[in-house]
Design a protein that fits this description.
alpha/beta; 7 strands; single chain; two-stranded parallel ribbon; 162 residues
Length: 162
């Protein structure tokens, strides 16, 4: 598949990091490999720093690339699993797969600094899990992928509908 350079650039965000692309209104965050609790905390910090770069009252879409992610232990996974859903809820976005968890039914949405998330692409290497998530939770502006390049292409092409 021939992917334009703009898509490849987005996929080159370093492991355990996040990057804000203002011209695309796109936040890219990546966490992969076998990670420790310290790695998860560093990644979370990079996500929060990237969110701080977004101007007040703006909108964004997010590319969450977890391809190759594996928590080293249960404690690390527990810390990791809430970061994206809770963080995005602070920007008016409810991640679709939260419907799987009874404890998430009361998660409140807000808009930090007037900023709103309007779309999300999620990537993970577990093809059967991701296909199931796409079937049950995929919508026009939220999709689940096992191929990082396809996710990058999709999120880049996703328009931001206010």
């Amino acid at each position: 598949m021939n992917i334009p350079k703009t898509y490849i650039k987005v996929n080159k965000v370093d492991n355990l990091s996040s990057q804000w692309y203002n011209s695309k209104k796109l936040l890219v965050t990546r966490l992969s490999g076998t990670v420790t609790l310290l790695d998860v905390l560093r990644w979370k910090d990079s996500l929060y720093k990237a969110l701080q770069e977004i101007q007040d009252d703006d909108v964004f879409k997010i590319y969450v690339n977890l391809y190759g992610f594996k928590a080293r232990d249960v404690e690390t996974h527990k810390k990791f699993r809430n970061i994206i859903p809770i963080t995005l809820s602070r920007y008016g976005w409810r991640v679709g797969y939260l419907d799987l968890f009874e404890e998430a039914k009361d998660l409140k949405l807000s808009c930090t600094r007037g900023i709103r998330c309007l779309g999300a692409a999620h990537v993970h290497q577990d093809k059967s899990k991701i296909n199931k998530y796409q079937f049950f939770f995929g919508i026009d502006n939220e999709a689940y992928f096992h191929n990082p390049s396809l996710a990058s292409k999709w999120i880049n092409e996703l328009g931001l509908k206010l």
